[in-house]
Specification:
By secondary structure, this protein is an alpha+beta fold. 35% of the residues lie in helices and 15% in strands. It has one domain.
């Protein structure tokens, strides 16, 4: 996709000539993150997670829904556990698919769905993977137009998701 084809606004809200056209990231495209081993920091062969950007429409919709809920119930109090659960929910919303393997490289046959994604991110022993996902979705580099993701991250497995 060329820079001139980048869309920053929904079609119905886009001005005829966006002022910031050349500055927009492709935040609504899905990118594949290779899963790195927590100790060696090398890619686990065959392990990846397909993710949306932290600035994607899905992320904004999740955040807007939380704000709406808060405005409707201003007296509601959230516990630390509630906030931790919301964090797992938000990461699940940003996740669109995966291929998982064990730390020793054996394939895990866990089909992707939102409930499984939430469980993955809520599990205490998965903080190493949660940290990788958070770092990836907040990084602008994967969503730069025309960027060769392999050169940015140095991983042969990193590529736009299908």
């Amino acid at each position: 996709m060329s820079v001139s084809q980048v869309k920053c606004f929904p079609v119905e809200a886009r001005p005829a000539a966006p002022l910031f056209q050349g500055l927009c990231l492709l935040v609504d495209e899905v990118r594949r993150m290779p899963v790195l081993h927590p100790a060696s920091k090398r890619p686990l062969p065959g392990a990846w997670i397909d993710l949306r950007s932290n600035d994607s429409s899905a992320a904004r919709a999740f955040d807007n829904q939380l704000t709406e809920d808060r405005l409707k119930n201003p007296d509601s109090r959230r516990t630390a556990a509630d906030i931790e659960g919301l964090s797992a929910d938000r990461l699940a919303v940003l996740t669109v698919g995966w291929n998982l393997v064990t730390l020793s490289g054996a394939r895990l046959d866990i089909p992707f769905n939102m409930a499984a994604a939430r469980e993955l991110y809520a599990e205490a022993g998965m903080s190493w993977l949660r940290e990788q996902v958070v770092k990836f979705v907040f990084d602008a580099a994967p969503w730069m137009p025309g960027t060769n993701l392999n050169s940015v991250f140095g991983a042969d497995t990193l590529q736009p998701a299908d």
